[in-house]
Amino acid sequence: MKAVEIMVDSLEEIKKCIEGKNSIAISAHVSPDGDAVGASCALGMALKKAGKKVNIFLEKYSDTFDVIPTGGLVSNTIPEGFEPDLYISVDCGDLKRLGDFGKVFEKCDSVNIDHHKSNTHFGKLNYADEYATSASEIVYKLIKDWIPLDKDIASALYTGIIFDTGGLRHTSTKPETLNICADLMAFGFDFNKIYNKIFYTRKFEEAKIMGVALEHMERICDGKIVYSYATEKDIISCGTTSDGLSEIINYLKGIAGCECAVFIYAKENDIYKVSMRSGDSVDVCKACMAFGGGGHVKASGCTIEGKLDKIIEDVLNEVKKQL
Ligand SMILES: [Mn+2]
């Protein structure tokens, strides 16, 4: 294991590095979630205020996150030959998770700001704090005494923090997290609208595929492992895409007695995404790293190529090792 302490550059060093650059690109992990979009947009809007030329590159994301202000800085593809003075990655554990943007990131002076336990320190400067609730929390710490926050930046950061803490509910939440949220809320954005959009609004098609996944649900090891799956056919027949499945894992985890939930769904031909959530007894980051993935101790994922039956068997065997 790498000693994280010596691999982490200070936020002060990162600030100095940014100050010396003019054009800055920002990206987050593929299939961007609320923290990825919130942290990217908050940082981008703040650096623009600080006089930088900013481009944010994110894969197309769910319209759930349209509630996050972007400052008009987001595009989905990098123009041919584009090379910023500095490329900042947020909320991304390794270069591979940057998708196509990684090819440009690799060539640039770079900063990696993240909170995944499995972070590989792939930037020139790296700040990876696995105890931070979210990348948005780290971005807040980076900019708070440097660039004046405003309503849009505050609401983007707030959305990222509540998204990654499940609404200030996960054990990663600290008194400090609520102090940060209090500071952000003082800017007067519509927090109730954000909360409802993130946690209590779903598309009709997403509810349908949820039904299918719950129908497929199984339990093993005295109910300690609850798992389910959705095939490509299931997803298409419900009229949704693999982006519409993110809530399902939380329902599986919510089954009484479940210590580890596993949800496997088709991305494309023979490529499956595996999501895992756990309580106190299973380190799902470790389990997912066995398949080249990673994430957090209680929330991780990986992508596996193969036949569904075999993948289910392999993944469950890996989890069972820890029970
Ligand atoms: Mn995150």
Structure at a glance:
The chain is α/β, with parallel strands linked by helices and 323 residues long. Helix content is 38%, strand content 19%. The chain has 13 helices and twelve strands.
Poorly predicted segments: 1-6
The total count of strands amounts to 12
Q: What overall geometry do the principal axes of the alpha carbons give? A: globular
**What is the CATH homology-level superfamily of the largest domain?**
inorganic pyrophosphatase (n-terminal core)
CATH topology group of the largest domain: inorganic pyrophosphatase (n-terminal core)
Query: How far apart are the first and last residues' alpha carbons, in Å?
Result: 23 Å
Report the order of strands and helices: HHEHEEEHEEHHHHHEEHHEEHEEH
Helix content: 25-40%
As for the number of domains, it is: 2
Look at the structure and give the CATH class of the largest domain: Alpha Beta
Structural Rg: 19 Å
Q: Describe the biggest sheet?
A: 6 strands, parallel
Written account of the structure:
By secondary structure, the protein is of the alpha/beta class. The protein has 2 domains: 4-199, Alpha-Beta Complex (inorganic pyrophosphatase (n-terminal core)), CATH 3.90.1640; 204-320, Diaminopimelate Epimerase, Chain A, domain 1 (Roll), CATH 3.10.310.30. The chain is 38% helix and 19% strand. The chain is built from 13 helices and 12 strands. It has helices at 4-7, 11-19, 34-49, 101-107, 135-143, 151-164, 175-185, 191-199, 204-215, 232-237, 248-253, 284-289, 308-320, and strands spanning 23-28, 53-57, 74-75, 86-90, 110-114, 125-128, 218-220, 225-230, 260-268, 271-278, 294-295, 299-305. The protein has a 6-stranded parallel β-sheet, with helices on both faces. A 6-stranded mixed β-sheet has the order 7-8-9-10-12-11, with helices on both faces. α4 links the parallel β4 (86-90) and β5. α3 runs parallel beside α5 (135-143). The longest helix is centred in the N-terminal third of the chain and has 16 residues, at 34-49. The radius of gyration is 19 Å and the shape is globular. The site of manganese (II) ion has 6 residues, from loops.
